[in-house]
Amino acid sequence: MVSVIGKTVNGRTFYYLAESGRVGGAPRVVAQRYLGSAEDIAAALAGERGPAPTPTHTRHLAFGDVAAVWRVLSDLAVVDLVDGLVGSGRGRVSVGTYLALAVARQAVAPESEPGDVDLGEWWSTTAAQRFVRPRIDPGALDRRAFWRAMGRLGPERRRLLEAGVLDRLRGELAGGTDRAEPAGPVLVLDVPHFTTYAGPTDAGGDDPAGEPWLAGLAAAVTLDGAVPLTAELYRHGDPATTAFTVLSDRLTARYAGLGGQGRVTVVVDAGQSAEVDFAARAGRHFVASLPLTDHPELAARPATGRRAVDRERFPGVTALDTRARVAGVDRRVILVHSNALRAAQTQALARDLSSATRRLADLAGSLERRTLHRSREQVAAEVARITRFRWVERVLSTSLTSSDEGLRLRWKVDEAALGRLRHEVFGKQVLVTDHEDWPVADVLTAYRARYRLESTLRQFVAPVTAAPSPRWRWSDERVAVHSLVCLLATTAAHVMRRRAQHAGVDLSVRDLFARLAGIEETVVTYPSTGGRPRVRRVLVDLDPLQRQLCAVFGLDEWAPGRAPGPVT
Questions:
Q1: Of 481, 557, 492, 486, which Cα lies nearest the Cα of 78?
Q2: pLDDT value, residue 469
Q3: From the CA atom positions of the chain, what is the Rg in Å?
Q4: pLDDT in tens, 236-245
Q5: Separation CA 247–CA 531 (nearest Å)
């Protein structure tokens, strides 16, 4: 319902166009637009308004990225699920709202220390406080209140929350179909370097409680979009509990316990043949990479035997789909060649080769000047350290000779070896799978899922997550909350990327968030005409891709109006 209301300020009446609706069953004004005084309205109707006033100041608020993340969190019902588990409570901000705010901040402003979050300060820099209902006052967001709220979300409730989010994800991923497994093929993979939790130390640095520990993350994700469905954080240390064979077994059971259906596919890296054998014996599907050196006959196959994988999904990628003996068993193997990987490896070798030859030149100069007093064995060991880089030792030959004038060091690049490396190795990978019916594109997608997930986690999670103060420690509960926030942020990001990709916008998570971050809201403040100063909220100019992203995430619903309104 829309109506015109008047407000009297210092004896003068100003008018607003107000939109009313029901909030929690009670009528409330949900939006209003400033119209001005009666004279302003009359002048506008008569076309007599004078020159546009000059703004006094402007400020920019984050809109596109925050709104898109909040849209996904709303669709996944994160706030409602949490508050349904713990109750609304007596705080000014509910537990579910605190968690959703932390997830949104982790996704769009991951540079902040997660243990020292000032949600209120961040929230005041976003436009979301304008359209999120019920309204969240930045002043009500307190760091200590946040951790008290998270204390109510214990292990059992976190497990129920995971199940609830998974149910919502099934609807998202099913796309309106009635297939048996709405999530589609599910992959189990390992991100061994999730983060290192570094605790406080005393003045001498010997506080055992402050010793850092490396955390890994085993996750079950979808083939389509690598969307996390469930995950388990683990602490490196005991191989009996952190070996991937054990982790994949536990995670498969965990996924099944949450109602997951169908056989999972285990994804492993080169050199993990034990995991492949374990998956085969356990009746699980697998996709793995094999050391290229174990199959030189494949590496030497001519490029004419390879075919394009998918020019849209994998531009510049070709593959040879064939068979080979793997650990004594006839398996389906795929030789993949990527132009992008070849270029990256070529650049890496050029960089490492340049560094090695520069260091060798310095060493040779020191030997000629006789300023380096070392034995032949010590110099040979130093040469080995300099040339230890991957591939460098294959293309760089060195010689160390003795004479009356001392040791002499010479080196040269073996062009023939360099050519063989570029032809037989660069850009190539060998994959093995028991999926006989999967297209090559799906096998490659499964193998790359880990790197896609790991890349997103690197964007959201620092390699070392430090305690923000000497008195603050990473307890098990706080580690669990931190991992939950990061995982939900990753889930939201991958759902966003999947939605964009299905709408024809194929961007990485990093590029997607960069584009959305460019959709800012500008707040322009004009001088007062007798009452409060007037403001106008507008979006910055958008390029065609940003307009398309607005449509994908329904941001037009939350976009600001273009008429002046009161300062809030």
A1: 492
A2: 67
A3: 30
A4: 887 777 888 8
A5: 65
